[in-house]
Write a structure and sequence with these properties.
single chain, alpha+beta, Uridine Diphospho-n-acetylenolpyruvylglucosamine Reductase, domain 2, Uridine Diphospho-n-acetylenolpyruvylglucosamine Reductase, domain 3, Uridine Diphospho-n-acetylenolpyruvylglucosamine Reductase, domain 1, five-stranded antiparallel sheet, four-stranded mixed sheet, 9 helices, 20 strands, binds flavin-adenine dinucleotide, binds uridine-diphosphate-2(N-acetylglucosaminyl) butyric acid
Length: 340
């Protein structure tokens, strides 16, 4: 079977930052057969391909010499059930938010708090996407992935994925080795509503509901998200650019000397998470505009492309922020976005 490999393709439409770099080789896979076929081509065999979904968690800093493979595998299937759960398999190329809406419509509970996260199902395990008190590890059953060199399909359970905060084995030890083909989720027949994330309850109160539903939670999350996160169709961005750092109480006590109100979320007896958005705002970066790019004015954790920015400019801005937060708060911020 032959497959169409395009040459020198602009990637501007394939990343939510809207960065215009060129991919030397580019192909779209709609089926597992397409993946097998393209990975048998010399160009795709010689170097690990870059697998892309919605391009909403990448920053392109230079032209892409690695062959690019856009994963567009489609399909959503009910694959099992027991007393408590339905097991739903979604192919990697399904849009994440459309999948969430499909689940809400069919009363499959568990991912409503993850409404409106851009990107595709296939990337959701990569950094164990999370928002408003839920991470995909909470609803994950298994995934199937294709090995780029051995061409075997392997099933991974949750333990094998080593999920952590914005982490998985696919971002670390197994980076670039696997193409995620599909993910099977374990979704509740009877919902357990997760409204403990402060802003959700406030939003639900405004809605004056007679009965709590997963649809209401989804709508509350959508309302909160649209009030502070930029819509990539209007303003290029990749969501949170940095992770929220986990730091020791010694470091927090030091910050308290000058900022008694520092927000924090305890992890254990020794450490707590400090919101990076707060640190960046306190350091004076929120809303800062450097011509083509800058820091979002409603959420300091989000770097934006105002139009025409290069990935290198955005990257350099992130380095300046890291250096400033290090010197002002003695905290090393880590990038969340995949730098390419
Ligand atoms: P891409 O950007 O295409 O890829 C991301 C990484 O995964 C790359 O390294 C890529 O090589 C790899 N990859 C993609 N697909 C596959 C595959 N099938 N097999 C193997 N590797 C693959 N994230 C959160 O966790 N929580 C949020 O609340 C959140 N909010 C966001 C809000 C905005 C406005 C934006 C723009 C982004 C936000 N994100 C959030 C980040 C992003 O949406 C998620 O990380 C999402 O899962 C990325 O999906 P994608 O398909 O766009 O991945
Ligand atoms: N804050 C500020 N100034 C800001 C932004 C935030 O002071 O400009 C402080 C406030 O104290 C606020 C706190 O930070 O209460 C938390 O802010 P927010 O609720 O907006 O969440 P976040 O910690 O900035 C994280 C995730 C988001 C996710 C939200 C909701 C990370 C890196 N980011 O953001 O995920 O949607 O929580 O759960 O963990 C993403 O990963 O791309 C992403 C958007």
């Amino acid at each position: 079977m032959s497959i169409n490999i395009e040459h020198n393709v602009s990637m501007r439409m394939y990343n939510t930052f809207g960065i215009d770099v060129t991919a030397r080789y580019f192909t779209v896979a709609n089926t597992l057969e397409d993946i097998r076929a393209v990975l048998s081509e010399d160009i795709y065999r010689s170097e690990n391909p870059l697998i892309l979904g919605g391009g909403s968690n990448v920053l392109f800093t230079k032209d892409i010499e690695r062959p690019v493979l856009l994963n567009r595998l489609k399909g959503i299937d009910l694959v099992g059930e027991d007393n408590e759960y339905f097991y739903v398999k979604a192919q990697a190329g399904e849009n994440w938010h459309q999948f969430v809406l499909h689940c809400i419509k069919n009363e499959l509970a568990g991912i409503e708090n993850l409404s409106l996260i851009p990107g595709n199902v296939g990337a959701s395990p990569m950094q164990n996407i999370g928002a408003y008190g839920v991470e995909i590890k909470d609803v994950f059953h298994s995934l199937e992935a294709f090995h780029v060199k051995d061409h075997v399909v392997k099933e991974f359970n949750a333990t094998e994925c080593s999920f952590g905060y914005r982490e998985s084995v696919f971002k670390n030890k197994e980076k670039d080795h696997w193409i995620i083909l599909n993910v099977t989720f374990r979704l509740r027949k009877r919902p357990i509503f997760k409204t403990d994330y402060g802003a959700i309850q406030e939003e639900l109160d405004k809605m004056k509901l007679e009965k709590m539903t997963i649809k209401a939670i989804s709508q509350a999350v959508i309302a909160i998200r649209t009030s502070k996160l930029p819509d990539p169709k209007k303003l290029g961005n990749a969501g949170s650019f940095f992770k929220n750092p986990v730091v020791s109480y010694d470091v927090i006590n030091e910050i308290k000397m000058t900022h008694p109100q520092v927000p924090m979320y305890p992890i254990d007896e020794e450490t707590a998470k400090v919101p990076a958005g707060w640190l960046i705002e306190q350091a004076g970066w929120k809303g800062k505009k450097l011509g083509t790019h800058g820091v979002h004015d409603k959420q300091a954790l989000v770097l934006v492309n105002h139009g025409g920015a290069t990935g290198r400019e955005v990257y350099d801005l992130s380095s300046a922020i890291i250096a400033d937060i290090q010197s002002k708060f003695n905290i090393t911020l880590e990038r969340e976005v995949n730098i390419l």
